[in-house]
Amino acid sequence: MPVAWRVAWLCGFLCLPAVAWAERQSATLSDEDILSTIKVSGYLQQDIALYDNPRSLATTQDGEDNYRVYPRRLRLNVIGRHTEAYFFKLGIDFAEQELLQDAYIDLQTDPWLVFRLGRFRHPFGNEALTPARFREFMEQAAINMASSQSRDQGLLMWGGSAQAGFQYQLGLLTGTEAHRESGVQVHDAIGRAVLRLSEAHEHRSVRAWLGVSYAHGRLLAGDEPVVRVETESFSEKPVFSSYMTLNTAYTRVREGADLTLVSGALMLRYETQRIEYIVNAPATVRGYQVSLSWFFTEELRSLRFGLNERQMIFSQLGEGDNRWGALALTLRYSEYNVDYAFFQDDYFYTGWRGADKQSNAHRGESHTLGLNWYLDPMVRVSANWVRSYAVGLPGTEFAGRANIENAVLTRFQMEF
After folding, report:
1. Which domains does the chain have, with CATH numbers?
2. Which of 182, 192, 247, 349 meets the CB 3.0–4.6 Å disulfide criterion with 123?
């Protein structure tokens, strides 16, 4: 992490007590001529990563050490609302490379018709759309990391009703500052719809949501990698990767679907995604993940339109004054596949140089076992053990499952 970012992180961390005190004292203004409410919130994620990577295909920023202690996120959010029609959010992060995370304003004419302008999350997929502090696993699955930025600038139209069990999102995105700095112009049309398939009641204990996402974009030439896939076990040090650059305009089509099933304390989730890159000929990256999560304390899941929300804790381990929170066990399998076309010279156009077969995998798998300890709804301790495999092309030095990593990731998270 650069020195400037370390200083920014330290300053932000030292400001946490003051911000928390201000929030508790009064973070609400009553001046109707300005805003009905202003609230300040945020969270800290402090990580320790231990990993075994004897045949790494990349190096860390910190050298060859097989461990790292670092702040994953240090987020500060300011949100405001005036009546039911206007809402804004400003989110900055002192630990991320990009300081500005969210900056948008909502105009609501009806619960079924809301307009959002600014910088916001891609309305694509379940895991990527879920706020990081509410996710079951510490890092996203590898296929989600191949989907470029998780936030973009643009215009979004969305709406829905929890009672009706349906929500839609339609957006026009124009990329980020990082895209423009690297010479990439982005024009992306994106949409997502979520339908509740069933609702729990006294005769039916299963809740289910189905989400469908689609994006069609045109990207002009630049230095942005066309495919960037990393292991979810440690994003700063990928075990397997495929980095390729298309120095020409290309079309990118993304298709995704996700299914969430909840029965009491048990949750099953499946998500799949396909990304197609088209110049003169198409090539695809595809992948999926399936996960299972279970509360030892039989806690009911806090979900909205199939996305995790802040987990409320009602049933805790222990009795009386010796209660010590709730525990949840998580399991996940994920994989991705990169077309052989990405490794073929002159495939997309004359002069295209395919990815290096000796140092890039065409397929990857990850197995994750995790434990989340919710001390209360605002404090959580997480641990993930991840075993990742890289599968190279036939005839290469790491064909089959030759490149393997075992990683242990731990995190302390505190919200305010």
Report:
1. 43-70+114-415 (2.40.160)
2. 192
